[in-house]
Amino acid sequence: MKTIFLLLISLVFFSSCMKDNDDKDAIVLPDDSPQTITLDCVSTNCQELIVSGDPYQNNPDFFGYADPSIRKDPNSGTLWLAYSFPHYKMIGSTPVPSVAIHLAKSSDQGNNWTFVKNLFEPIPMNNPANISQEGFLDHETVNLIPISYSGEEFWCAVRLNYFVPKIGGFAARPNNSFHISIIKASSPNDLTNGNVGTIGGNFTHSTWNVNATLIPPDLTSTYFFWNEPSLYFDNTMNKLYLVMAAFAYNGSLPDLSKSNVYVFSTVPSGNPDSWIWTYNGKLVGESEAKELGGQKVTQTDISRGIDGKLLLICTPDDYNEILKDYNHKGCKVVEIKSLENPELERGNNGKLKVRASITASDSNELGSGASAYAPESDTGILFTKRVKTNISLTANIWKTKVKP
User: Fold this and answer.
1) Measured between alpha carbons, how far is residue 133 from residues 89, 91, 124, 171, 177 in Å?
2) Rounded CA gap, 248 and 199, in Å?
3) To 5 degrees, how large is the angle CA 378–CA 382–CA 386?
4) From the CB of residue 363, how many other CB atoms can be counted at a distance below 10 Å?
């Protein structure tokens, strides 16, 4: 009898331990979400980036630096910086707001920068879709990448282009002029005269002579143009990835639910106008954008973190119905699970792995500009602060020292 009693006690104890272990197994997956670095880029929290030899243009309402792209030369160690340069151009006696892309470099890990050249200047022209309309073809939101492929070392750049008319300026940019250029050359310096391929959405007018075949399957019946692109080269797979934000429209109004971020890839052999692009998929959709604090995501950059993890640097935004413009909501840095099968990384809690969140509480209602990151630079994330209205734009690039 005593033996049976002891056996029953043992079974109860064993059962209790098993239950405890089952409960622990059910709830214990360590929280692997990164600690999000947050920064309000105001006052002394950030340091303004100045490029020696490239002063802001001296005009009251359209000047500065914006939209940085920063990459390290894998051979020399030089850091290269390309950035938008808002200024005025003249058509006769009429000043027209315009944006060029400038190039600078640093040999001391990004602490000091020296102007190199005007990389891409606005081109005076008549709008080919409306031949009587004078203006400039402008360029902005450039993204650089060094590539080593099949024994060849070269650089690529991707940029946004659009037509700015003499009458109306930036507010009158026709949506059907927006298109993307991809340029290939032996060095950042040589990209000015490099080989070019052009890409457009189904909103882009045919007179811009674009490759209009890069249409995601969920946008085949939607009017959209491509915007604010970025590049990433995978040395293991020997693939160049092109990440672009689709700006979709329903009539004259933005359709934010379809304005997603998509990934295409190619083997970068030969000239860009001969490259065959493969559709990889959607990287950021409406649900991910809402999780990041916006209704869509734009202004992308792809970089490695200090631990080698692939990162998306991006701007969540929504649409301001009163001002008829997009309201940018700072910079978010999110881990990427894959570009080949596009997906952002999530933790065991199901949430996106957000490594950094940068805002500027002194921005106006349209928010900040684009950001960029190279882990080799002492600058940390480069963050654009701007004051934008329908008739003016002033912008500056700031060193945040944030290194996710």
Assistant:
1) 16, 12, 11, 15, 12
2) 16
3) 150
4) 20
Non-local (6+) Cβ contacts of 341 within 8 A are 280, 281
Please say whether the beta carbons of 224 and 202 come within 8 A.
yes
Instruction: Render 153-210 in DSSP notation, one character per residue.
Output: EEEEEEEEEEEEETTTGGGG--GGG-EEEEEEESSTGGGGG-EEEEE--TTS-GGG--
How many angstroms separate the CA atoms of 391 and 169, rounded?
A: 8
Chain center to CA of 244: 8
Q: Are 27 and 346 in contact (CB under 8 A)?
A: no
Distance (Å, whole) CA 110 – CA 376:
9
For 16, left (φ over 0), alpha (ψ -120 to 50), or beta? alpha
Q: What is the mean pLDDT of each run of 10 residues along the chain (404 residues)?
A: 41 44 51 88 97 92 96 98 94 89 99 99 97 97 98 98 94 96 99 99 97 98 98 98 98 96 98 98 98 98 98 97 94 99 97 98 94 99 93 94 98
Instruction: Report domain 36-399's class.
Output: mainly beta
Q: What is the DSSP letter of 273?
A: G
The token pair at 285 is 């959709």
Provide the token pair at 128. 């080919």
Domain limits of the chain? 1-30, 36-399
Beta strand pairing call for 310-320 and 331-338: antiparallel
Q: What does residue 11 show for φ and ψ, rounded to 5 degrees?
A: -65, -40
Nearest to 243 by CA among 138, 155, 154, 336: 336
* pTM for the structure as a whole: 0.91
Helix (H) or strand (E) holding 136: strand 134-149
Residue type, 113: W
User: What are the backbone angles phi and psi of residue 250, rounded to the nearest 5°?
Assistant: -120, 95
CA distance 291 to 185: 38
Which residues, in sequence order, are CB contacts of 327 under 8 Å at separation 6+?
A: 317, 318, 319, 320, 365, 366, 367
- The number of beta carbons lying within 10 Å of the beta carbon of residue 15 is 10
Name the nearest CA neighbour of 386 among 162, 64, 60: 64
Locate 111 and state its tokens. Answer: 């602490």
> CA-CA distance, 275 to 268, in Å (whole number)?
7
3-state secondary structure of 373: coil
DSSP class of residue 107 equals: S
